[in-house]
Amino acid sequence: MKVTIVGAGNVGASCADVISYRGIASEVVLLDIKEGFAEGKAMDIMQCATTTGFNTQVSGVTNDYSKTVNSDVVVITSGIPRKPGMTREELIGINAGIVKSVAENILKFSPNTIIVVVSNPMDTMTYLTLKATGLPKNRIIGMGGALDSSRFKYYLSKALNKPANDVQGMVIGGHGDTTMIPLTRLASYNGAPVANYLSQEELDKVAADTMVGGATLTGLLGTSAWYAPGASVAYLVDSILNNQNKMIACSVLLEGEYGQSDICLGVPCIIGKNGVEEIVDIKLNDAEKATFAKSADAVRAMNGDLKAVLA
Ligand SMILES: NC(=O)C1=CN([C@@H]2O[C@H](COP(=O)(O)OP(=O)(O)OC[C@H]3O[C@@H](n4cnc5c(N)ncnc54)[C@H](O)[C@@H]3O)[C@@H](O)[C@H]2O)C=CC1
Ligand SMILES: O=C([O-])CC(=O)C(=O)O
Fold it and tell me: With a cut of 70, which residues of the chain have pLDDT below it?
């Protein structure tokens, strides 16, 4: 199976590293516009093969889309990341043009591919990719919820003082500092509601920390995070290529589900060989439904800024 990653920067290269290390695909192509950069990243990753023991073939190219031909999955991580103090939404001006042209180039060589959109503002970039390519909705998947959910479980595990892998939880809604919805009511510690162990105040703090999880790391690192984002993309790609049918919160086109239409927003999806196999209704309560509607309003307003790019 072949995966192309467009944008060999922090997130793209980290994703290629996890995909090869875990043997998720047999071939990974990294593509970047910076001369020699993707080639260098690919060579560096390939020089791990004998020490970490993988057989994936990783190669790098400078803007040569012919090398991406017949990719099963293409990941878009090209574009600029935010700096401390910025929101993801502020990246739209530069990233919209990049994402649109990348998506169009990809399709020339891989008309049957599934596209995973990572560049921010991710929900709006996913919607843009869908509109610009006209691909069926099951083949355009925005990655944000997998990462946000892993951060949610990290903060829950810290509050519970228990291992993160014993914690279940999901974040839906927009992939933004104010639009994310950590579902604290449904989170559990090995099946028991986390509310059995944490006060409302503690749960509120976990939710608040999760929502600004990306901003916190951006403040610490000077640019946005990459290890967990790269690993989250690899997790999603694994579920597609190996038809795992995992339930993962992803940004996908809604056509009435969760009361929304004509918008890409994070909802629980079954992810398998066709991309989005199913959108799962996890039965939100009235308060959660209202928060979801507010999140959708904010993302829809952002999508309005795409008019010029889509014209
Ligand atoms: N959805 C999510 O959960 C996450 C999204 N992101 C987003 O992912 C994007 C990438 O972040 P980083 O890897 O940290 O940035 P980075 O700056 O390290 O890498 C971006 C790469 O894209 C390349 N690039 C720019 N224009 C291109 C084009 N037209 N064609 C091919 N390559 C091009 C650049 O040369 C650079 O190497 C950002 O927009 C960031 O906000 C980052 C983390 C998580
Ligand atoms: O915070 C950012 O800008 C990058 C991102 O989406 C994340 O790490 O969640």
Answer: none
